Structure formats: C-alpha cells, structure tokens
C-alpha cells in the first residue's frame, strides 16, 4: 500500500509538473502571439479606408479609360455605333457636297438671347485675373468660384441700361462667339461644320455677335454693333463677287435683325443712313429660326419672378431651396437683381395685347387640353377626324388669353365666376411715385409690402393687356427704361411719323418691312 501511495504520489507530481510545463509553454506562446493579435486588431477596416479605396478605384478607371480613348483608333466609336444602330447617314453637308453644291451666297448668323459669349475687359478688384475671360458661355467657371462677383459684373446699370461704373463686359467676336453655349451644348457649331463641308469658311461666314443684355438701340450707342454689322455685310458682298448675303437669325436675334433692317434704312443720327434700297442691294434672304415676333409668355414669368421653365422645374425637386439664404448667396435675390437690368428681355413681352393673345374668355387657340395631356402641334383642334387619338374627356376650357392666373381653378373658370378685387390700380396710384424715386430693384416680395402682394394676387387673372400694368408695378425702373426702347401695341396708321422712332422697329405690328421686293423671308 505504501508503494502504491508513493507511486500515486509520484504520478500526481508528474502530472502536476506536466500541467505546469504546459501552462508555461502556453504563457510562452502567448508572449509571441499577442503582438500578432494586437497587430490584427489595429488594422480593422474603417470607413476612411473604404473612401480611399473608392477614390483610388475611380481614379484608376478614369485614367484607364482616358488612356484607352487616346490610344484607340478614331474609327472604333463609329464602328461600335454602326454595329448598334446600323450604318450612319451622311451629314447634310456631305450630302450637299455629293450633289455638287458649293459656296454661293455669304452667310450671316445672328444669335439669340443668352447664346452669345461675353468676356470681361474691365472689372473691380474681385475680378482680378479675368481679363478677356468669358463670364458668360464656356465652362461658367467663374459662376462657381466667385458667384457674387460674377453677378455684379453681369449686371447693367439700373438707371441707364449701360455699363456700371468701372465694369466693361463685351461680346466675344468671331464664329466662336456662339458656336457652343457650354461644353457639349452646341448652338451654331453643327450648322457651321456642315457649311464647311461644301466650302464655306470664315471669309464667307460671319457671326453678328452683340451684347444680348442691352436694348437693341443701345448696342449701337455703346458698341456701334449695328454699324459693324452693316460694314461687314457690305464687305462680304464686295469680296464675294457682289453676291448678296443670306441672314440666319435665331430666337431674339430675329427681333434684333428686324430692328437692324429698319435702322440701316433710317437717316442718321437715329439710323445707319443706308437708304431705302440698302436691304434690296445686300440681302438675298432672311431665314428666321424660332422668332418671337409677337413675344413669348414665358418672358412675363421671367420678369415677374425670375421663374423660367428650368428654374420652375428645379423648384419642384427642391422646394424653397432657391428662396433661402444659402451660404449667404440669396440666389433668387441676386438673380432678380441681375436679370432686371437686362433691357433686351423686354423685347419679348407679348405684343398686340388682347387683340392678338385673347382676353378673359377667349384665345386664338380655342379649347385645349388640361395640363396632363399632350399638347397638340396643330393650331386648330376643331377637325377631330384628322386627330384620331384625342380623348375628349380630358379636354378643358383652359383659356390661354390669361397669361398669368393665380390658381388653376381660376385659369379654368369662366370670367363671370371669378371674383376679382381691383386693388392693383389703387395700390399702384398710391405707391408708384414712391417706387420710382426710392426703390432700387425689387428683389424680394416682402420688400413690396403685404398689402401690395395681396393686391397683385386678388386681381386673379392677367391678360396680355394687363400684364404691362403688373410689370410696371413690380419692376418700375425696368419698365421705364423699356418704354423708351420697345413698344407692344398695334399700329393704326403705319404712315404716322411717330413710327419712325426706333422703339417701334422690333415690333412687326408697328413697323413696315424693308423696301426690298426681291428679298426672301422664311420663318421656321
């Protein structure tokens, strides 16, 4: 038994020693393993790592695609496009060249509003380094870098409609003035490229660039632009074998060139002194593209609240965003302050009043669809046999003679059911004198006053006749300048000497066409 006890004790001591050795080995191993575990835990994936990897991935893909784009043959994109869509058709210029057409009449382009580039020639301290850099057109880089300085330099003087003190912004010259509005957004570039296919070049093409912010007559007063257009057309006719020019105006450029044709015939100092036969001798044809001869209703919303279609769409996605003081910019305030100094916008206010655009209960379009239905391209919908897909249940008696309506129900209701409170006239009479002498530019409606806002809204509906009163109410200085340069009526007698004034020259309802019976006029 004693032997057994000793043996048992020996075994237990051995097991105890073995356990001690195992524990020591574990401790020893832990000394070597713990740094690895700590190292592993210290490299745990973080959000910062994800961002770095993502940026690196995007940059790598970008450089790879850029390398691929610069190394691949130029024909591969065309090959891929043709594989997807089929063989590409020839551009119009190539087709004309195959038909044997070549250069004939010189071509003059007249750009519209906002499509011509403007560059800085003199500015304030905030515009240092921008000499002859584009403020309008191109990349619009300065709009993002220094927006307040940009808006200041793009504005005109609110009293004269010309340059503010210490600022000179001038139109870019040459075909590059309006070939592209911005990167990837062409205006005249495609037409220029197609004409080049049949032999046209800069000596047979001329871009009649002008400062589209100014009133038409002020482009001559400040820059002598009308005189330059006259001289360039005369030069092109003289250097091209006496062949008369073909003029292609677009948008507001249509009105501008209409003004030019009357200006060039009129005697100095108001006109260019070319005489009544100048157009007949120098112009073969005028091809008007999208000409707002009678004005456009959206110009009213632009002047009234700076809400053209693009801004209205933006506000549906982000209601109230443009109204707020975002980073101190006060977007709407500065937009309205800037655009209400651009006198050219008043050339597109609807002309002819209710005679042309309709009244409270009628309009030339007659009945139309509601806002949810597709707009018909046909001017008349009386003959429904020719339009088989019309859903008559969707038709509403929306009257387009009502240029502005406060509420959709007001736009659709008959005039007898609309309760209009004519507070506008009383409010205008009470405040007009103070407005003309004290206000700078009304930039926010709380500056107008609650009672005047209520007067505007309570009038409910504005036609082409009453919108002029409305614009005089909300923008008196702008309309005071506009009244000296533009007219919106219908002439009773075109032989009346008053219609020889330049304010009537851009209104086709108050001016005569040039004395050029062989001159062709097209409107697209």
CA-CA gap between termini: 125 Å
Question: How many E strands?
Answer: 14
CATH class of the domain at 102-296: Alpha Beta
Structural class: alpha/beta
Instruction: Describe the global form.
Output: globular
CATH topology of the domain at 102-296: Rossmann fold
Average pLDDT rating: 80
Most strands sheet: 5 strands, parallel
Low-confidence regions: 1-10, 31-40, 368-395, 432-446
Return Rg in Å.
35 Å
Transmembrane segments: 51-69
Catalytic activity: a glycerophospholipid + a 1,2-diacyl-sn-glycerol = a monoacylglycerophospholipid + a triacyl-sn-glycerol
Subcellular location: Membrane
Family: Belongs to the AB hydrolase superfamily. Lipase family.
What key phrases describe this protein's structure?
524 residues; globular; disordered N terminus; alpha/beta; Rossmann fold; 21 helices; 10% strand
